[in-house]
Amino acid sequence: MTTSSSEQGVSLGMPQLPAPAYPDDVRARLEADGREIIARYPDSRSALLPLLHLVQAEEGHVTRTGQQFCATLLDLTTAEVAAVATFYSMYRRRPSGDYQVGVCTNTLCAVMGGDAIFESLQEHLGVGNGETTDDGKVTLEHIECNAACDFAPVVMVNWEFFDNQTPASARRLVDDLRTGAPVEPTRGAPMCTFKETARILAGFPDERPGAVEASGGAGPASLVGLRLAKGETAPARVVHPRGSSAPQDQSPTTEHLSSHDAPQDTSASDPAHPAGPVAEEGE
Ligand code: FES
Question: Who lines ligand 1 at CB under 6 A?
């Protein structure tokens, strides 16, 4: 006797119904915000990443409705939008908590205690990777290296850093998040919810008093880049090649925006280390 696919609980992968539309008032508000984002780019499709953050700020994850909204606004197909939304891990694909607690379990953090922290939080919260506590407050996740290895093991909450954690400090952290006790990241701006964070990532100002100052603002190179992007002339900032000191006769040709732009020693400029064919014998 054979059983049908539905009896076996097997999905036939039938096409889904069209995504439901946003209510008119929500759509009008998102469309105004979306047009503001698109206007920042010479090519509208470049606005897709911030637009995905915008719809994530509305619903807490990127829904099919959100993808359809982005596609319509940017004149893309929903397949094109879905390809991007499913590629980047910063976009959530299912509802989750107010606080995304990411434990770095990349190599350095893992050996410094990240694996132990993750196991401890799984047990303490009663959830696994990518799962959310019953109160809807915390989603626990493994995360990859966040370039904060010097502070390993690192936990991130809504992309704010909590450095040098231990299993005990991480358990306290999630308890405070769940009870609403004040929580201060090790550095950076004060905590806000995942939806609020998503709106900031969409490119809207963080209007909380002192938040921008607390995050340290943009560095000099970013500000120079912003001016250049706006077509302004940025003042040259003199940075000398790494490892060298300022010459006495500073000339415009030795000015560089960063030490990475500055010419590094090469075989041509460094006679002490000439390059050239090396014989098999090393001569
Ligand atoms: S390995 Fe954890 S921040 Fe780099």
Answer: 104, 106-109, 145-146, 148-149, 152, 154
Supply the CATH number for residue 182's domain.
3.40.30.10
Only one residue has tokens 């953090």, namely 109
Residue that finishes a domain, picked among 167, 193, 219 = 193
pLDDT of residue 239: 59
Ligand 1 centroid–CA 10 distance in Å is 40
Each residue's pLDDT tens digit, 158-176: 999 999 999 999 999 999 9
Last residue of a domain, one of 85, 115, 130: 85
Number of domains comprising the chain: 2
Residues 126 and 80 in one domain: no
Gap from CA of 58 to ligand 1 centroid (Å): 30
Q: How far is the CA of 101 from the centre of ligand 1 (A)?
A: 15
Model confidence over 9-27: pLDDT tens digits? Answer: 444 556 567 788 999 999 9
